[in-house]
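=== RUN LOG ===
request id: a7f3
mode: sequence -> structure
chains: 1
length: 414
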Amino acid sequence: MSNPDSLIHYLNKNQHDDAEKINLFNELSSYFYQQEKYVEAIHYKLQQNELLKKTKNDSMLANNNERLALMYYHIGNYELSSKFYLEALKYFELVNNERIVAQISVNLANVYTRIENYKNAISYLYKSKKILESDAFFNERSLAGLYTNIGLAYVGLLQLDSANLYYNKALALINEIENPLYFASILNNKGEVFYELKNYDKALISYEHAYKIFSEIRNYNGMGASKLNIAKLKIKTNEYKSSIKLSKEALENLEEIKSLFFIVVAHQQLYEAYKGLSDYKMANHHLELYLHLKDSLKGNEKTERIANLEMQYATEKEQQKLKILEQQILLTEKENKLKQTRLYIVLGSIIALLIITILTAVYLRATLSKNKLKQVVLKQQQEKLQLTLDFKQKDLESFANYLKEKNQLLENLK
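=== RESULT ===
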C-alpha cells in the first residue's frame, strides 16, 4: 500500500460487515507499523481488537494482543506493552504453542530490560532459550534475536563478558546481507560493551557501522539509537558541540516516530552536553524534560503496576491450572462412574448368564432323567411284549403239535 488515504476513505464511506472491517483495520495498522508510525498503527489495531472480541476469535485476538504489545513497546508505554504481552502469553500457554510462548517471553524480557528489571528479563529469556535451542524449534534468526537480548540484559547487570559472549554467538548465526536489521542491532549493542569497558575507539567503530546499516534500510529507531550512542561518546571525549548536534538530529527523528525511550535518552545527553559547555539554562531545560519524560516512561507507579500485572498473570495462571485440574478430576470421576457402570453391567451379564446356565443345566438334567425313565419304561414294555410273544409262540407251537397228533391219529384209524 503506497497511500492509506484511499483505504481510509473507503472504510469511512461504505458499509462493511465485521469480517471486512477486521481485514481493513489490520491492513491499515500494518501499513503504519511498517512506516514506524506506531500511534496510528495502535489506533487501528485497537479497533480491530474490539471486533475480534465480538466475534470471539480467541486465536486471532491473542496474535493481535502480541502485536499491540510490540507497538506499545516502541512508543515506550511499557505498562500497556506488558499487559498485552501477558494476555497473549496466557492464551498461547493454554493452547501449548511453545514457539510463540518463546517469542513472547523474549519480548517481555525486553520490556523488563527497558525498566531495568534485569532479573525478570533474564528469567524470561532463559525460559525462551530452553524452547528455542531444542531441535524442534531451531531457527538461526530466532536464536540470534534471543542471544542479542540476553546480551542486553547482561550489559544491564554489568556482566560484560557474558554479554559479549552472547553477542558473538548471535553474530555467528547471521550475516549483514541477509539480516541487516539484526546485524546492525548486534553491532550497536556490542558498542555498549566496548563503551562500558572504556574502549571508546572500538565502541565508535561499532556504533558508526550500525548507523550506516540502519540508514541504508531506513530504520529510524535504529538510526536514532546508534546516533545517540555516538553522541554519548562525544561527551566522554569532551566534544560537547558535536554531541549536541548529533543528539538533536537523533531527537528530531525519534520524536517523529514517538520513540519515548530514546527521546528520554536524548534529553539526558543534551543536559550533560550543555552542562559540559556551562550553558546551565539549556542544561536545566533538558534536565526538566528528561525527568518529566523519564517518570512517565518508568516511574515507580508504572513499575509497580507492571509488577501487579505480572502478579495477576501468575495468579490467573495458577487459577487456570486449578481449573484444568478440577476439570480433569471431574473427567476422571465421570470415567470412573462409567467404568463402574460398565463393571456392574458386565457382572450383571455374568450373573444372568450363570443363572441361565444353571437353569439350562437343571432343565437338561430333568429332561435327561425323563428320557432315562422313558427308556426304562419302554424297555420294560419291550420285555413284557417279548414275553407275550414268546408265550403266544409256545401256545401256537402246542396247538400245532396237537393238530399234528390229531391228524396222525385220524390217519391211523383209516
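=== NOTES ===
The mean pLDDT is 85.
The longest helix spans residues 300-413.
=== END ===
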